[in-house]
Amino acid sequence: MMRYDNYTHAQCADLVELIKEAWLAILERRESWQCVDHSDSDEENDASWRTASLILAAHFSIAIRYGEAAFLREKRKGWSPFLKSFQQDLLSADYGFDASVERRLLSEFCAGWWDSFFMEVVGSAAMGRTPVGYDLFVFSAIEQLSEVALVSSHQEHLRMGHLLSRALAERSREAVDRRDKADIEFRDVVWRDAVSVRELPALANRQESVVEKYGEKHVESKFEESLNLLMQGLGFMVIPTRQGQRRVDMICIAPGSGSDPYTILVEAKSSHNNYTLPTKDSRAISEYVDSVRGRLRTLPPLRLVLIVGPDGAKTLGGKIKDLDCESPVPVRYMPIRTLLHLRESLRGIIPAQPFLRAMLAADSIVLPAQVESVISAFRATNVAHSEFISRLLEE
């Protein structure tokens, strides 16, 4: 088999056209394209036609892969592997049973190739840019290749169906990869806030997927940005602090206009391993709390320091207790899974006072069970509001 990767896209496209012209002569069983030896039996001559068709199918399925870019980029006159009329012509002609099997195989292959390309263009149905994913049509083409090949009892047709379905599967796999990459980029732009929140556990644990996506140096800032969005979603007014200085990451003012507003300091911590609260982190938080308490005169009183990060090491609870005892403001550690559990359970603004009470009542590490009181308070308030509005409408 010749090496098509040694040729340019345009040269491969020219070769595809030459192969197609030769193959059409075989598919139409033209005697001028001399596969017929009158000294052979009809069965031997039929086998010669099938073998020639198989050889050209093998070349066609490889050459089109390397020539596709030229067909899409250049304005070529006449035939293109993406022309639906070409596929219909293959289906409508009649040159005997063997030829009809081969023509149908070529038609299904070209249809699947076109659908693979179009899948890259329109994306997936999940993104809402197409009502039906074009991968379904590709699957159908591969299925048809298998079924049509099995209709014939000849080995040449079975091998041809295998060659074409394998080439189409490889092309569609490339299309799926490109489509998914484009969909992810589109999703990140359109659904940025939702995507950022969903990535929080991976960012907190510095998983390989987010390190590759954002870079080792940017995972921490991305975690802080995503946590900022989540806290805003809970109703807090968030004021991020400057990066690179010994201070906490954000100042959050409790939502609502209750009689006892408050401020909390939130520190985001990401780590490949379970978080341990190193001495330098503990000292930095303690120093910042001491320095900031007297300067936040125009804000509601500072009531809590909340550290958010991955699951903690075995020693973390004791270290948080020590820091809590040393600090003039209560300190709690909340694993990101607890905060996400809270966010997923609340479809609205967090009840500020129940949240603060739950934080102060919790041990050093806040677990999902310890925020159930906040969720219950939120649901009770919603029920009360719904009943009040229903009574107003009934009057």
Would you mind describing this structure in some detail?
- With 395 residues, the protein is an alpha/beta fold.
- 61% of the residues lie in helices and 7% in strands.
- It has helices at 9-27, 42-73, 84-92, 97-122, 135-151, 155-190, 192-198, 200-204, 208-214, 219-233, 279-292, 316-326, 336-345, 352-361, 372-394, and strands at residues 237-240, 250-253, 263-268, 302-309, 331-335.
- The protein has a five-stranded mixed sheet.
- Strand 3, helix 11 (279-292) and strand 4 form a beta-alpha-beta unit.
- Helix 3 runs antiparallel to helix 4 (97-122).
- The chain starts with 8 loop residues before the first helix and ends with a helix.
Q: End-to-end span in angstroms? A: 85 Å
Q: What ranges have pLDDT less than 50 throughout 5 or more consecutive residues?
A: none
Largest sheet, order of strands side by side?
1-2-3-4-5
Tally of strands: 5
Main pleated-sheet profile: 5 strands, mixed
* Helix-strand topology string: HHHHHHHHHHEEEHEHEHHH
Q: How would you sum up the global shape?
A: elongated
Mean of the pLDDT scores?
86
Q: Find the structural class using helix and strand composition.
A: alpha/beta
Total of helices:
15
Radius of gyration: 33 Å
**How much helix, percentage-wise, in residues?**
55-70%
Strand content: 5-15%
